[in-house]
Amino acid sequence: MMYQVRDLRLSFPDLTRKPLLGAAPRTPVLKGISFDLPKGAVLGIVGGSGSGKSTLGRAMLRLLEPDSGTIAFDGTDITHQTEDQLRGMRQRFQMIFQDPMSSLNPRRRVGGIIAGPLKLYGFDGLTARVNEALDMVGLPRSFARRFPHELSGGQRQRVGIARAIALRPDFILADEIVSGLDVSSQAQVLNLLGKLVGELGLTLGFISHDLSVIRRLCDRVLVLHHGEVVEQGDTDALFAAPQAAYTRELLASIPLPDPDQPWD
Amino acid sequence: MRDARGDIRRPIGLRLWLSGGWLTLLALGALFTPWIAPKDPLMQDLFLGRMPPFWVQGAEPGYLLGTDSLGRDVLSRILYGTRLALIVALVAGTLTCVIGATLGLIAGYYRGWPDRIISRFVDIWMAFPPVLFAILLIAVLGPGLISIIIAIVVIDWTRFARVIRAEAMTQGAMDYVASAQVAGRTRFGTMLTEILPNVLPTIVALLTLEMGIAVIVEAILSFVNLSISTDSPTWGGMIAEGRTSVHQAWWVLVFPLITLFLTVLSFSQLGEGLKDRFDPVLR
After folding, report:
1. pTM: predicted TM-score of the whole model, two decimal places
2. Reported ipTM exceeds the 0.85 cut
């Protein structure tokens, strides 16, 4: 198993209700989430805004520390490991961010953005690796000398993907990576991601609110609502026969090419 | 996938030319003062008091910008004052910048208790009236170049700390900082390699502004006679002296004033100009 998550709970302090003295009350965001993610699988995490899907993703990468429950990555319990303990493992789980503008340091060139993480792990032949990563995401090698603002949104998101795959991770989390792109760039980036997952044998966590995208890309789906898993299962089964009322509601909200044609 | 986004080149603006030119001129003047100053700045000649600048009727040859009431050459005194003004600008400006920006960066990026301590300190510090604070400090330390520099640093580091803290907070919330964490970079490493390059343009702009302010503060302190000893000419000291005889000899007041004005303006414009030219991110 790539990930085993059991009864994961996480809360944020609610500073708007903080008393003058003392700690702020905490608002639960994840309320006991459990799931397994087998190696090589593509897991879609879907839910409305505020459902906790991004929080779950950030907890899986240990950008956030859960209150309780466990997260095991490839058999290692990483729930409460410190940053120093995690440092050696971080190369193995990477992330692609939602906003392609703010996720790339605006004052570094693309080559430096991709090479930066590689240097941390002592990879050699940096130029060759950067070039290889650019090739894999279909960007010209000359782009290594560009700054992020000199790229279009789709190109920036490809750089984000290149940065993640250059480290040769086992797992990548893609957090709403196409929601900021126009439709044709969306399709290109999704096709690219699907191709890379196959080629590199990656395990992928794919966060989205867009069910049609999830359906195209994912083997398994986790439906979140108000910080709880309302349904999980194989994509085909879930789309064919949704069990939870909330899932049916989500499915019903997808615009169909032909409204009279039911889901096949 | 060719487009023109990578091909934008920006010329060096007029702003950078003018401000950089004036400051270069000043720097050369300060370096070679003893060789280019036409007269001894302290030499008095009461028979040559209040001589007008060269283009006015009755000017004394050799005294290009005229003389003050004691017959001292205004141009030479401005040149000798330049040295002092530039030393104060560079040393006080840089020290203020390093101390203030470091604290601001730590407060804004690390947040938590370092931020609480630094921010409270800044708040309390800024409640003191600055000029009074400076006068008080120099009264305690005694007048002199070092005291002036210390006074400026002690008063003005809060300006950097505040602005850089806010900037570091904004940058710290960006995804590229989270991305550095995902890659396993240490907090300190992230601050240096990700945050610092992004607040650097602000730091440079503030630094040049601060150099201008340092020149003004030095002038203010000379004005109230708390700068260097009266033997070394300073712009502020000349302005203070010139004020008393402005109706008889306007040039004693006006020339140092123009020099001061152009210098402070150039420092602030230099910052903006450098940002326009060298910051890779178009705004």
Report:
1. 0.84
2. yes
